[in-house]
Amino acid sequence: MGRGGKRGGRGGGRGAKNGGHISGERQSYKRFEDLRRDNDNFRKYYLAQNIVSEDEFPELMESMRTVLPTNFRITGSRQQAIDIREQIMDEFIPFIKETSIDGAEIEPPHPLEWYPNNFGWQFSIPRVALKKSKELSKFHSFLVTETEVGNISRQEAVSMVPPLFLGVQSSHYVLDMCAAPGSKTAQLIEALHSDVEAGQSPTGLVIANDADYKRACMLVHQMNRLNSPNIVVTNHSGERFPNIYRMDAQGMRIPRDVVQFDRILCDVPCSGDGTTRKNVRVWEKWRADDAHSLNPIQSKILQRAAYLLKTGGRLVYSTCSLNPIENEAVVAHVLDHFEGALKLVDVSEQLPALKRRPGLKTWKVMTRDGNLHDEFESIPLDEAGRGRRKYMQKFFPLDQARMEELHIERCMRIYSHLQNTGGFFVAVLEKVAPISVDEKRKAAAEAAALAATVEKIKSGNAAAVDISCLESTAAPATKRLAGESEAGDSDADSVSLKRAKIGSAQISIAGDDGSGDEEEDGDEDQAKRPLYRPDEPREDPALPENPFVFLDASKDDLRAILEYYGIRDTMSRNGFLSRIENGAFRSVYHVSDSVRQLMELAGQRLRVVNTGIRVFSRNSVKGAGCSFRLVCEGVPQLLPHLPDRYVVEASFGDLKTILNEINPLLTALSDECHERLRQVPPSTSVVMVYDPAKHALDTEKPYTRMTAKLSIPCWRGHASLSVHMDKNQLCSLIHRVLGRTVDRNAVGGYRLENNRTAASAEARAALGDGSDAIQADSA
Ligand SMILES: C[S@@+](CC[C@H](N)C(=O)[O-])C[C@H]1O[C@@H](n2cnc3c(N)ncnc32)[C@H](O)[C@@H]1O
């Protein structure tokens, strides 16, 4: 299917039905093998566009008919990613080199030469063949398991390109406008975290948005594997992504001061005709009209993004379509519309190994009768004089001088025969001047303040310099959140707190009004809206789950949890939130200060589908010290703030015992480890930590190279310890530490029965040890 997906849900607006295609015609269903991998109109259309020379065209067409190789990307924290890369090099490449299928040797996977750090990979065997191959089942199982746990992302090579050109840094506010299913969002998050110490939060954030609610939920799954407190998943039509206003010192919205983003990705819905190698049905469904239907929404999304981008910020517009009407036409007309405020960036020096062709400056438009036209006026009128109704001037190129001026050649076209990938289009844009009246006004005020400051410094009156004019307009909210009270601020603080509690609570439709126009939306006073009450019926029945509400760390259950586990103050108390159900919560999530601030500013305007990392979950074990336990995905986030009493060091022998037994008796562990665990009260969560650096000289080591610290959340029962991980994580860990491949499907009820010794099971039964009750985390 094309990458448009279905647009629906609230605000989805017009949708690309039938898997991204507009036709709406029912196709008679043909078997995969019977599909014709050609289309006369497609051939005629693209030959006329001169996307490649006439001589090269057959090669392009031929490559578009072949099945794609398998591609994947190594994800996760840097150290972990290096370990996985080395595992592929040390274990799987030698294994595949020695493997043959029907007597034929197999070319082992190789890194994509243009992807940084050898983290992008290609394997000549197509996905389906890999899945079916008995010989390669071990490698397939590795890819599946590591994908599930989030160490690997199975992603088409060209789809990895757009985020690389955004240059995301840890302080950036990033908006991914059409994000589902989220493979590029994952890259954006990784980039955000890449230059930050483990356990620290970047100061920036990523909003992953999609117009289709169900698809936005796919982002949640992706998010759970990414373990980032800096991500918010939202559900808006990109072209109407709401304005989020800054607040003044009194906690009131500043009507014309909108939060803008440093980086925006517009990976827009498209006809997807660059994906024929993956989606064979594109051949038979292809119609020139699809691009005509998509161009308007693509242009609107890009225009809205331009408003939301900071001056000096960078934006990437991308599609997996080869069609100039979805690509160069959109970029050229939007650039033209903004009269020089947006510019195409020359990225020819970046990723030099990536083979690409320049953007087109001329193209033709195909009408329904199959004729091609160079200009709008050449399309004949029908009898009713309305023949051009379905076509628009903006489907055509601008005049050539203007196209030259805009440097349309700086757009990148990637074709399948260039480096054995799918087809893709990428344009990198920079905002060099403000666009809206408000932005211009604000920029002028800032420039005037700066000039005044410089003047004061020059005149030697430095003491009178007010540096506040140099700070961002977010300063009041930021200061408040940082606890810096301003004179007479107590009321403001209480307003602010109320707003914070509203969080994303009331996600009313009225907030979804970011029209992309310079017009104000008339929603001047957000504070006049009723406050959210958890026990009141929800206002937005389209969202099936209760909204998130920020929790007060000094109250009730949350205070008890933080006290019980002794969570240090280094973990921000502002970031805890939950969904309230019948006045209580089951799980506690944690978000970064940047997300908290954004949600505070956004109030009801943002339809938040999900955010944060789950850190605590309600626990049903009787007699437990705390009614909440630690959650596996939250452990990396909590660990730096957890006191030593809940963190127990494991030797390699202990690690083996834990992974072999899953639920070992405490007596089966080393004396040292046993003694440490005896100091922890029974019926509580603990984290077992194995630090490879401390055991570098040990003779026994993990099966694969391991340099990143392992932290394994466990439940300390009366007599035994049980691992709290989902089965994919467990399988991944067992393979990496013990070298054993465990069939995920055989891991019934997350118990790994085969690994447990009968003796320890009997002993547990005799002791009535409660640890069995909650053996592993559900994913
Ligand atoms: C090409 S896909 C995005 C792929 C995604 N960036 C990735 O790398 O996984 C386009 C997405 O746009 C969404 N979409 C369609 N219309 C939209 C709109 N008006 N605003 C925002 N998203 C939209 C679709 O639901 C679909 O998930």
TrEMBL record:
Residues 10-22 have a biased composition (Gly residues). S-adenosyl-L-methionine binds at residues 178-184, 210, 267. Residues 60-432 form the SAM-dependent MTase RsmB/NOP-type domain. Residues 514-524 have a biased composition (Acidic residues). GO terms for biological process: tRNA methylation. The active site is at 320 (nucleophile). Keywords: Methyltransferase, Nucleus, RNA-binding, S-adenosyl-L-methionine, Transferase, tRNA processing, tRNA-binding. Its EC number is 2.1.1.202. Its main location: nucleus. One of its GO terms (cellular component) is nucleus. One of its GO terms (molecular function) is tRNA binding. Belongs to the class I-like SAM-binding methyltransferase superfamily. RsmB/NOP family. This is tRNA (Cytosine-5-)-methyltransferase ncl1. It is an enzyme of class 2 (transferase). The lineage of its organism: Eukaryota, Fungi, Fungi incertae sedis, Zoopagomycota, Kickxellomycotina. Residues 1-30, 508-546 are annotated as: Disordered. InterPro entries: MeTrfase_RsmB-F_NOP2_cat (IPR049560), MeTrfase_RsmB-F_NOP2_dom (IPR001678), Pre-PUA_NSUN2 (IPR057285), PUA_NSUN2 (IPR057286), RCMT (IPR023267), RCMT_NCL1 (IPR023270), RsmB/NOL1/NOP2-like_CS (IPR018314), SAM-dependent_MTases_sf (IPR029063). Pfam families: Methyltr_RsmB-F (PF01189), Pre-PUA_NSUN2 (PF25376), PUA_NSUN2 (PF25378).
